[in-house]
Amino acid sequence: MEKxxxxxxxDGVQRxxxxxxxxxxEKKGYQLVxxxxxxxxxxxxxxxxxxxxEKPFFGELVDFITSGPVFAMVWQGQxxxxxxxxxxxxxxxxxxxxxxxxxxxxxxxxxNIIHGSDSPESAEREINLWFGEQExxxxxxxxxxxxx
Length: 148
Ligand code: IDP
Hints:
Oligomer: single chain
Strand content: 15-25%
Helix content: 40-55%
Bound molecules: inosine-5'-diphosphate
Radius of gyration: 15 Å
């Protein structure tokens, strides 16, 4: 079953949106297989955002993601990688549709509440970067047969 890495960024944690975000993913029917509240080292932040290393906003991005606790999660489900991205909305909250997490709660591109892996390759890389294998829990949810 497909898995993706999702993180409530420091602004989302400070604004009390962890519960709202977890609730949306649960209601959608995805299954939570790992979660932790944690502070992020610069080393981890730089690895996570390595693809943006040359961008002018890289320093700002690393400063922001290390500025307070984040809530890191792994969600599992059919097409969860693309589905999570749909639920998050566009990168810039100004362009994100109402009903999406960024559209409903975000204002600026720097503080856009949530991160989600953008492809199967990044999902695998990010899950392995943020979680140890023993942190991913395998369990049956009886509702799965109703989700299709
Ligand atoms: P994504 O988070 O929607 O996948 P990416 O293009 O991978 O978007 O960018 C990673 C993060 O970098 C974004 O979520 C956003 O917080 C930040 N970011 C992207 N573009 C800018 C910018 O132009 N200025 C400041 N921050 C930016």
